[in-house]
């Protein structure tokens, strides 16, 4: 049984849409004559306004279409660096958030006030320095200079563009404000805490040196781990990756010397000595462990403007790759960059031979040449265990036979009973 209903007013415009309809509407639509075909004589030209609005377009050739398809646009902006610098811009437009605009005006007004106070203090220091030597108050002059250094930092420490540049690696280390912000970030945002946590957890202090207070950021980069697929091992070019303190590395990653990067906070050039020591070399004679010197380079000039050592680091005691022994626990490898006793006078350290590397006593060496971890420096450490690549290091790099060690025998509590007769 068919259900008939009345058509709405707009149903005649939606005749091409399929839906519920009456028999009369369907028959009327089917009996309607079809429009005559459009020919060249019956075709009417478009209106003048539409013809005027259409602009003539040039035909696109095949070569232009091909070029347009082959062109690739960058998917993201390049990272910020000194080679690709950027300027700080407001996160929101002016007038969108009145509270932000007021806070920005307050920061700028406070910076102008501190800068004015700094100029007055600089005039006092210049007047005090202009006095003869006997009339100067040395203690008061030193206090004025210290206050002037503090005001110089406080005049720019809250400016958004200054903090943005310090955060994004565009700091100008010739200005004390940027050195202060970068050092503050290194000390307070976890990098130094992670380093000291791993150094004390792994007993680097006191096994190697009695005390250590790092004064600058030391970072190293080794090759990333090789792919697990043997087919890709010789076909993929591995990149250098920054090493987190205390992690495990493969001996294959450390066959070549690492890239060393330093961030110091003093502008004057001072001399440092680099050492790399293995703390867990087994010693069969004493049934204990001894140390092995892998690398040493004295008299390295470093300052705040030096991003990495500028002297060749293989000129003194060359780098020997880490080679943890088979059947031994993990080995701790420590990299130290310590300040020398004299910041400007080089020290004369003899080149250590292979026989002198094993059993290297850092405490005796530090006492002889005046090294002290409490006076600052930089440090890093990581761990390694034996794998098959260590055998290749012994064979082709060290050119000596690989030693093998076994686990320490456990004392048998029943040894005395076993030596006696079981039955009488």
Automatic annotation (TrEMBL):
<feature type="region of interest" description="Disordered">
    <location>
        <begin position="405"/>
        <end position="424"/>
    </location>
</feature>
<keyword id="KW-0175">Coiled coil</keyword>
<dbReference type="InterPro" id="IPR035810">
    <property type="entry name" value="PEBP_euk"/>
</dbReference>
<dbReference type="InterPro" id="IPR008914">
    <property type="entry name" value="PEBP"/>
</dbReference>
<feature type="region of interest" description="Disordered">
    <location>
        <begin position="24"/>
        <end position="85"/>
    </location>
</feature>
<protein>
    <submittedName>
        <fullName>PEBP-like protein</fullName>
    </submittedName>
</protein>
<dbReference type="InterPro" id="IPR036610">
    <property type="entry name" value="PEBP-like_sf"/>
</dbReference>
<feature type="compositionally biased region" description="Pro residues">
    <location>
        <begin position="33"/>
        <end position="48"/>
    </location>
</feature>
<feature type="compositionally biased region" description="Basic and acidic residues">
    <location>
        <begin position="405"/>
        <end position="418"/>
    </location>
</feature>
<dbReference type="Pfam" id="PF01161">
    <property type="entry name" value="PBP"/>
</dbReference>
<feature type="coiled-coil region">
    <location>
        <begin position="104"/>
        <end position="131"/>
    </location>
</feature>
